[in-house]
Amino acid sequence: MNAKNKKNYTQGTFNWYALLIFSLTSIITGIYRDGFASLFPFLQIDFHLSRAQLGLHSTLYYLAAASFAVYSGQVVDLKGAKWSLIFSGTIMGLFYISHSIAPNFLIILILAGLTGASASFNMPSVNKGIVEWFSEKQRSTALGLQSVAFPIGGLLGAIIFPIFGSILGWRKTMVLPSVVAILGVLFLSRFYQEKGDSINYRIEDNKNNVRFWKSFSQLIKNRELVKISVFGFFLGMMSSSITSHFTLFLFLDYGLPETIAGLGFAFVQMGSILGRVAWGIFCDKVMGSDKRKTFLITGILFWLTTIILSICSRNINPSISMLFLLAFLAGCFGNGWPGIFCASIAEVVEEKNIGIATGAAFLLVRSGLMIAPPIFGYISDMKGSYSLSWFLLGIIMLITSLGQYLFSKKRDGNRLKI
Q1: Residues in contact with 280: Cβ distance below 8 Å, sequence separation at least 6, in sequence order
Q2: CB crowding 223-235: b at 16 or more within 10 Å, else e
Q3: What is the largest CA-CA distance in the chain?
Q4: What percentage of the chain's residues is helix, strand, coil (to nearest 5)?
Q5: pLDDT at position 134, please?
Q6: Is 48 left (phi over 0), alpha (psi -120 to 50) or beta?
Q7: pLDDT tens across 300-346, in order?
Q8: How many other C-beta atoms can be found within 10 angstroms of the C-beta atom of residue 57?
Q9: Of 123, 131, 366, 403, which residue has the fewest beta carbons closer than 10 angstroms?
Q10: For the chain, first and last CA: distance in Å?
């Protein structure tokens, strides 16, 4: 495809249809990834679990997702976004419904790991597809819009799961995301078409017998990608601590009913949705696409939010409206980073390597997602509240946000070759 035709392709309308399709697949993934935590109060009662034990659910999910991250990215580069999303969506649908017949929490943890492994294809597929269909001037906007899909899914889960859990029980409730996942696969297979030059990339790479370890060894030589990925580890810690424990924070520290605590978690997701769009626009329009400064500002604001959460846990009994406001701010400042993060990855690698580069970066992101929830829960179990957990998390994010600002190079938007 020559440059003129390629320009017409990206200026057409199908790229926005593609963005919608990618977003739908991420919404379906987010319903479980970010929404299942709203069912934790039901699971705690059913299986008599501690906060640290419930935190293991996120650990197993992200352990599997991290373990398969780089490999799934390589598969996406070789097989394409469409094939990868159809495969992962089908498998996730089967694992969703399997939760409904799990006899104990151990089986749920195993299913969480299997679901995480199948979900590991989503981010490399989506990031690669958006980079293929959108020009560099449009990508930050597209990635910012797409990144709201996960919290939208989490918001839907946070609203629907507790309501249906109270009416039908949490087991029957898990049939709903399974049906949605299968419908999403059918929609994707019918309406998504791949771009011609992306197919040519894959044909060439398969002819050249591109090896996994060769591609991976080239990636780890890219220092800027490594720096982005290391910071992603701490971003993952922040996000999983919020999504795994905020419902329990409201339920256990303040004694709110399960449905009200789930609604509070919905405010976290609403903050995440607004934050991802707002921070993307703020980064491009106000900060001149300077992601380093944007991350520093969000880190400072999140630290201030955790200070307030820590004080609320120890000294005062805030109103429900105050707690919901803090939930919204925690989501906005703590979960608003994925669009900017993915745009940072796209700046430092070649287009044909977007899949494996995203997988490599999210290997560390998911390691943080995996490690943080049980530690966050263990500290709160030891202290009898979430006060110290919030305080420590805020300090960690303040330090690492400052670190990425000082040690990462300012980029002008040109992609570096690896």
Answers
A1: 140, 141, 143, 144, 145, 147, 339, 340, 343
A2: ebbbbbbbbbbbb
A3: 65
A4: 85, 0, 15
A5: 77
A6: left
A7: 999 999 998 888 655 667 788 888 999 999 999 998 898 888 888 87
A8: 24
A9: 403
A10: 23
Q: What single DSSP character describes residue 256?
A: -
Query: What single letter denotes the amino acid at residue 244?
Result: S
Cα 307 from chain centre: 24
pLDDT at residue 298, as a whole number: 94
Contact 188, 89 (CB under 8 A): yes
Query: 318 with 312: CB under 8 angstroms?
Result: yes
Burial track 154-165 (b if 16+ CB lie within 10 A, e otherwise):
bbbbbbbbbebb
CA dist., res. 400 & res. 404, Å (int): 6
**What's the 3-state SS for 297-365?**
HHHHHHHHHHHHHHHHHHCCCCCHHHHHHHHHHHHHHHCCCHHHHHHHHHHCCCHHHHHHHHHHHHHHH
The residue type found at 144 is G
In 130-262, at which residue ranges do the beta strands (DSSP E only) sit? Answer: none
CB under 8 Å, gap of 24 or more: what pairs does 71-74 form? 71/212, 71/359, 72/120, 72/121, 72/124, 72/359, 73/124, 73/355, 73/356, 73/357, 73/358, 73/359, 73/360, 73/362, 74/212, 74/215, 74/216, 74/355, 74/356, 74/359
pLDDT digits (tens, 9 = 90+) for 111-142: 999 999 998 898 888 888 887 877 766 666 77
Q: Could you say which of 3.40.50.2000, 3.40.50.300, 3.40.50.150, 1.20.1250.20 is the CATH number of the domain covering 15-407? A: 1.20.1250.20
DSSP class of residue 121? Answer: T
Q: How many Å apart are CA 49 and CA 121, to the nearest integer?
A: 31
- Name the token pair of 45: 């009662």
